[in-house]
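Record 1 of the preview.
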Amino acid sequence: MTTHADDDGLTFSHFEAFRLINFTFIKACETIATPGLNPRHQAEKLMQYHGDLLAAYGPGVPLSFGEFRERLRGPIEDLLPPWLDRSDFGNLSFPVVDAEGCVTADAFDLQWEVSQLHRILKRLKRTSGMQFTEAQLQDEIDQDQMYEILKGRGDTQYVKDRSTLVECPAGTAAELNERSLPLNAIAYYEAIPYHATYLTWWFPCTVCKWPMKVSKRMSAGREYYRVACLYARHAEIGASFMFRPTSGDAPQLHADSPDTPAPREAALALGAVGAVPEARPVEGHLALKRGVWRYTCVPGLHELRLHSVLRERLAANHADVDAAVQLWPMSDAYDHRIEIQGTDGRTYLFTVDVKDYTHGRVLAQSLHRNEGDKGGAEWLVIPDHRADQISLLTVTCDKYRMKVATMTDFAQMVCRKAGVEWA
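->
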């Protein structure tokens, strides 16, 4: 297979092949799992994806249609041809779909995050080989178009609209209209996904309010259901519940035991919003598309929390806290602009981009291809539960005069310079 390497040795045919293989398996799994799909239409789509996969494999790597279907339940690692370099993508031992046929969070995030890296490479005109259609890139296209819609309404309205997306990822059409979102943005809400429904009901995550996934389980010969947010951290901190089947009535959920944050991280930790959620009718409700939810709502909760906590802590020392702590300035050039007066009399300016990537190696590659943050932020801040990525990201950030920190470490450092007690 012909390859093209840049001055850093990245082989683009390997990268493009990996991206196509990952994408193809996700779409094939979704095709199998989608309820009500016409069998003939399903077979036609699967044959198309099988052909795409053979093209990515290249000559000399046979894969029958039957074997292709069998591998749809396996881990991504088992789906890659022997010639493809896996080293740039980290651990690939997770499956593409779970027992219910829903695309796993790790697989979904890998596809989106690699697609973001691809866009960078394409913008730099340094890619070659396989290209993707607009339909295949729909998740990241949705994300870009959503931001453009919001930016067209001015900086002040942008912050309001972006906050609404974060705080209201699901609801009725009337509820969404009351939030005054632009009509083009409401178009990115769709019917409650099938994996989040039980009979005619769905359940909002108690952290992010997006529909939680419903999974059927068995214990001692008895059937029960688990309801949990597709974002694993939300499930760990409280958005995980059990219920017994009903004959049609709305089930009563019972909470699992949630993790509790370390005391020093408690101020910035996201908690369950309210008590156990009540079941809501599927009919009449809409939810953000999964890609927009995962990469707007989920990290946005951390961005809003960091903004709120720093405003509260710094308000006593800064008469104009609105100017000192800004959220998504210049229509989201970066996520935070913080300007404080230090105890030493100096003025300190922090420009911050918050990133929540499941796959830290892909984030490091994206930073490298952008030669830092594309918006010019000098700080990369990641959620506390991603602390294991710090060492890897520090190596990349050092090359571009950026600093990286967890949210709590960053907020404590800012407060310390301003002479504000954290605990």
